[in-house]
Amino acid sequence: MTDKSKEAAGGDSRRPEIFHVAARLFHEKGFAQTSMSDISAALGLTKAGLYHHILSKEQLLLAIFNYGLDLLEREVVQPVAEISDPEEKLRRLIQKHIQLILQKRFHEITVILHENRTLHGKSLDQINQRKKKYIRFLENILADIARKNPRGKIQPKLGAFALLGMINWLYQWYNPRGPVSQDELTEQFTELFLRGYGTGGAASPSSPRAAR
Amino acid sequence: MTDKSKEAAGGDSRRPEIFHVAARLFHEKGFAQTSMSDISAALGLTKAGLYHHILSKEQLLLAIFNYGLDLLEREVVQPVAEISDPEEKLRRLIQKHIQLILQKRFHEITVILHENRTLHGKSLDQINQRKKKYIRFLENILADIARKNPRGKIQPKLGAFALLGMINWLYQWYNPRGPVSQDELTEQFTELFLRGYGTGGAASPSSPRAAR
After folding, report:
1. The complex's ipTM?
2. B195 vs A28, A115, A196: nearest CB
């Protein structure tokens, strides 16, 4: 198997480790100041060994973004898509998205995902399309809730971005070892957003705590 | 007047322009890759001319952060602090903070303010203290509202960070030339947050549209 076909098939068990380590270095030192030698050294690989797994620094960055969005797809979108009730979908999405964001290893990936200034052209378009797809997924859930519930006055699109702001901002301030547990955070954010959006906000049978 | 005393006194009318241009370059190229020559060229100054205004690149970055936080203090905190009713304070804070964030020239300052990885030691502490002061200001308003209104179940601290997430995230997606006007955005975010926090969310006499 050549490097390229291996990369395409994703059949390379070291790739997640490479992505996490490289994301941490890109985050700490900046993309331009991080060399392939820095990354291979941090992984305990020779530079040739690293090139066995990936083709270039630019391709590595794109692969990290896609890896982060793959996780979002697998750990948030897929489980939520299986639920039929829109309000329940929203509750689960908030819970799952917070869970993903607060995974320790995901921190650097979150940060660089939102600083995608180093991507250009087709790579940037591809990542932006994937981000937009997630926003539309959330927006559609909110539109379904609005149809069922005439109390709401918030436009689904603005609601979607407000919620994503609340969740994505967590990496700026939330300390998992601080006084607020992840369950408490999830319950409060769910309550705040659902009530604000006009869907009541009373706890449902599968509220975050019960769903664990 | 020496350069240092000029800097300390802030009596230098070119400083805001220097800050905005440098913030844009730091944002576009990254701090490490931006040289003092790049900044002086973008300003139409010689390098010596730039050093007449500022002492070093690190000091320039710190000065930009303090400039951004000065604007937050002057354009958000001061007008809001003069209001006595807590709910009215909150409405005005949301309006004024959104207004500041959406100022075209403020964009790059917002971005680099939230990527303050290039500050270290005392400079980083100073900026973080100023940010915390703003968060406490908002948190105190939310605690005052909670005391008046037993319907709310959201902890003031979590409410404060949720709101800052909604507002600070705007730079990631909001297009002032898009279909949602700034007034509409402000009204919807105010409604969403106030209702979610448990303060009703009905329009007040000085809602954003009326306050203009």
Report:
1. 0.86
2. A196
